[in-house]
Amino acid sequence: MIKRSLLLSLLLAASAVQAQDKAAAQPDLAKAKQTAEQICGACHGADGNSQIPANPKLAGQHADYLYKQLRNFKSEGGAPAERANPVMGGMAAPLSDADMKGLAAHFASQTLKPESAKNKASIELGQKLWRAGDVKRGIPACAACHGPAGAGLPAQYPRLSGQFADYTEAQLKAFRAGERANDPSKMMRTIAIKMTDPEIKAVADYAAGLR
């Protein structure tokens, strides 16, 4: 009888610990919403729909990708941040790991208000690069990683559909110049360095119009 009671107590204790662990693992969306409204909203919009082309739209972006970017902006242990940006470095500095996961989950859950392609003259070039790349020059199709509709792949490749063309263009140029270097295995730097300014502009504009 004593053994049964002891076993039951142990099982109940284990269940309680598991419940606590599960609760701790869940992002605090209420806190994240407040942070987004009070801090992030000035540049990105409280709902992640930035109105400033230089600042990316975060609404509907993959949570794992957003979390990675926040971590990369943050300098830890005296080491330089993986993604250098004075503004975002300062914003990320006080955030805990739980804060970053919460913000990522908050923005991922918002509905994107997409941009659109605006340059008709470059649509054909942008479409060609997106769908087929340029095999002779070693430029793979953007769709191979970011998907035919630009939806990306959680934890690996960001959603580019509906993003500001100006922002996407700026990031491609930053990869090309080596100013942004937080791409795994130098994947984006290897591709962007082979692209011309007109090609970068065309594919960025094309991505903005994808749905």
Topology, pairings included?
Elements: H1 2-25, H2 29-44, H3 63-73, H4 86-92, H5 97-108, H6 123-131, H7 143-146, H8 165-177, H9 187-192, H10 197-208
Helix pairs in contact: 2-5, 3-5, 6-10, 8-10
Brief sketch in words of this structure:
With 211 residues, this protein is mostly helical. Helix content is 54%, strand content 0%.
How would you portray this structure in words?
With 211 residues, the protein is an all-alpha fold. It folds into two domains: 29-108, Cytochrome Bc1 Complex, Chain D, domain 2; 120-208, Cytochrome c-like domain (Cytochrome Bc1 Complex, Chain D, domain 2). The chain has ten helices and no strands. Helix 2 (29-44) crosses helix 5 and helix 8 packs antiparallel against helix 10. The longest helix is centred in the N-terminal third of the chain and has 24 residues, at 2-25.
